[in-house]
Specification:
Elements lengths: L1 H15 L12 E5 L12 E4 L6 E4 L15 E6 L6 E5 L3 E3 L5 E8 L8 E7 L8 E8 L11 E6 L6 E10 L6 E10 L6 H9 L2 E3 L6 E5 L5 E5 L5 E5 L3 E3 L6 E8 L4 E8 L4
Antiparallel strand pairs: 1-12, 2-5, 3-4, 4-12, 5-11, 6-11, 7-10, 7-12, 8-9, 8-11, 13-14, 14-17, 15-16, 15-18, 18-19
Bound molecules: calcium ion.
Amino acid sequence: MKNFTQKTAILLCALAIKFISISQILPDTLIKEGFESGIFPPTGWTNSSTSTYAWFPYSGTGVSIPEYYSHSGSDCAASSSWGLTPNAYLITPKLLISDTTYSLKFWISGGDTDFFSEHYSILISQTGTNYNDFTPIFSETLTDGNTNSSAYKLRTCSLAAYKGKNIYIAFKHHDCFDQYYLKLDDILVSGTKNYTGFNDLNEESKIKVYPNPTSDKIEISNVMNPEVEIVNNIGELVLKANSNSIDLSHLNEGIYTIKIQNEHSMITKKISVIKNN
Ligand SMILES: [Ca+2]
């Protein structure tokens, strides 16, 4: 009787959540930041430093001093190396990189025509926002600078290696001494695929997982080359596969979350594993 009650409870639970729950509708543009909002760091960003100064908002609004010039608009982010060695991190919110077309673009400049040898790195974390979580993917020492906007350079870093990952991006100003200001503006993290909410919804709604509940296998339809992860009810990854047909017979009875991803979309669903004994 107890077994029957447990199975009934699992079945009812599975029925209640039987339809696809779309975890994310993926927008093409994840970050578009020109530091014009008057809020610094921008909402969801992290600003921290182990040196004298963190990054700060550099605002030219109503000011006639030419070094206040941003790349566009009136404001940018800046970090000082004047009389010090900086170690300042400006970190984006967590970003889900859904396909290999995503890249980071930003405009960067030294703040002085003579003292422009600012050094900085772009770092990626796949875990958290502690300094040790980050790995550099790009570094340079600037070879140009100006008090106005003319020395800004566009830089692009591919994020293809992080397809399917949640990442944080850090702008780190470091390993230079007694220059002036590093200026950063017009940051864009986006893909080249034109996602629209409606298209995503249509595509993702077609993905089926059946049977559900299951006692052995599940089949996944209407998605090519899916990357599949199954997580138990305490968040542990219990299975990873690259197939449209997956054997779950070794899993304990219970409810699991299945994440299905390919280059076009990602969905999560609940699936119920039951035992026929
Ligand atoms: Ca700006």
